[in-house]
Structure prediction request, 228 residues.
Amino acid sequence: NAGVTQTPKFRILKIGQSMTLQCAQDMNHNYMYWYRQDPGMGLKLIYYSVGAGITDKGEVPNGYNVSRSTTEDFPLRLELAAPSQTSVYFCASSYGGAREKLFFGSGTQLSVL
Amino acid sequence: GENVEQHPSTLSVQEGDSAVIKCTYSDSASNYFPWYKQELGKRPQLIIDIRSNVGEKKDQRIAVTLNKTAKHFSLHITETQPEDSAVYFCAALRTNSGGYQKVTFGTGTKLQVIP
Prediction:
């Protein structure tokens, strides 16, 4: 049982490039989330999903896209990367219902130069 | 939407002293309030949580209190130790009319325990 797995751990992008951050969980969780954490700041919700085929925007969705074709995977797509997207990205999952505990991945540190 | 405010942003205490971190939330429909601890360079991990039908919960040196009327909740750490040094996040969860759960985090408190 690996929990929540994120790849890559580090990435440097040039302005205008695109990339996909991968997130997978093996706990059969319904809910999956993407957060970004800027230096010295809290966690801002980008997108979340309540199950395969269902996604919704969080607080800061601009510049990102997500999909949830399976229960296990929840990739985050960055199109036309900008310096403002330099951040640490955390994927998280939870079962939902009365089991709200979030399990976080180890994070992806992204720099856009 | 929900707004969670957290204070203080930084907190330094002497080893053995107590630490208190406070959060307020705006949405009275929020019904679950977890606290996460994030050590430097690590992922956040749940340390304690409380539901809206409970006023206080304790787990060894950590306790959380909830005042639903005032819409605030607090984390209390007693007999602090150097390994308590970390960033602590409060959060509030609500379930919307569609049955979907949404978690909103506070901005975090950096706790430093001085040996």
About this structure: The two ends of chain B are 41 Å apart (CA to CA).
